[in-house]
Amino acid sequence: MTLQPRPGILDIKPYKPGAADAPGIANPVKLSSNENPMGCSPLARSAFEASSKNLNLYPDGGATRLRAAIGKAYNLDPARIVCGTGSDELLQLLGRAYLAPGDKVVQSQYGFLVYRLVAMQSGAELVSAPETNFTTDVDAVLQVAGEDARIVFIANPNNPTGTYISHDEIRRLREGLPENTLLVVDEAYAEYVDRPDYETAFDLAREYDNVVVTRTFSKIHGLAALRLGWAYADGSIIDVLNRVRGPFNVNLPAIEAGIAAIEDTDFQQRSAEHNRQGLAYMHQQLGGLGLDVTPSVGNFVLVHFPETKGKTAAEADAFLTRKGLIVRPVAPYGLPNSLRITIGLDADNHKIVEALTEFMA
């Protein structure tokens, strides 16, 4: 082949979504992608269905009504919001807009895999800062970032660990970084967090012109299939993102369903409460089996398995799959002896515990 892509592109390993099939199992239980087991808001579903009458029309390129609904829900200026095809697209747009070959991108040790993709797509160098107890270490991030990091990506809470750092620590990070370093705080799981020292970084994005906060409709809102996300930042950054995004990057059904979802606080509250109970159950039950479970505030748990032959994470994954229970191996994150398990419906959580009880016996 004579036509070759830009150097480095063929080094990229495409993102691999959580598995959805178990061989020989007709209706497996999928707990591999951190989806909302309660589905989505009935109001969002109705809005999606109603939008099908207008599929011949282009959507509003600025998602004006959706941005207004988000702004109202979070007391944010809609002019400082941009919507995207999932928060993943917005992360990639930030890379397209602000990274050049050779730039340094920093993440925590077990940061979301998309950050690596963003860096590699732009020919930038990704450097990971060591974590402490599977938690972002601000001092380590600052040391690795130095004076020349172009972008620092921090997921808070983090995926796949489920851990978080306090708002004071996020502020300390911003204040310790150079003014020409962009801090991107990925808050995909923020709506699930129930901790007194956790706050969104919206205030930092309002205060600084080099902070971006990203959110998604894929998790607590249950709209993963529609690929919808948004970012909040200084107007100068929003202007740049609007220049590099596609003119109709958010489709009409997603806009309509997103408006209904953001307004359905009852569904959000029920989803968060179900998750709180599920997290407590999984921590207690799996810990009782002698497994090490990293304390999580997301809608999943990171479970660590022994290296003993017959009890490893890979063997546990195969055992669960044979029973029609699909979870997420996290070896690509540097965690070969761990599995990430989404909090599911009560019956599905019980199946996981029963299966792992048998496996660990």
From TrEMBL:
It comes from the Bacteria. One of its GO terms (molecular function) is histidinol-phosphate transaminase activity. Pathway: Amino-acid biosynthesis; L-histidine biosynthesis; L-histidine from 5-phospho-alpha-D-ribose 1-diphosphate: step 7/9. Keywords: Amino-acid biosynthesis, Aminotransferase, Histidine biosynthesis, Pyridoxal phosphate, Transferase. Coiled coil: none annotated. The keyword Acyltransferase does not apply. Its cofactor is pyridoxal 5'-phosphate. It is an enzyme of class 2 (transferase). Residues 28-355 form the Aminotransferase class I/classII large domain. It catalyses: L-histidinol phosphate + 2-oxoglutarate = 3-(imidazol-4-yl)-2-oxopropyl phosphate + L-glutamate. The keyword Transferase applies. The modification N6-(pyridoxal phosphate)lysine is found at K219. Its EC number is 2.6.1.9. CDD domains: AAT_like (cd00609). Pfam families: Aminotran_1_2. Belongs to the class-II pyridoxal-phosphate-dependent aminotransferase family. Histidinol-phosphate aminotransferase subfamily. NCBIfam families: hisC. Homodimer. This is Histidinol-phosphate aminotransferase. It comes from Hyphobacterium lacteum. The gene is hisC.
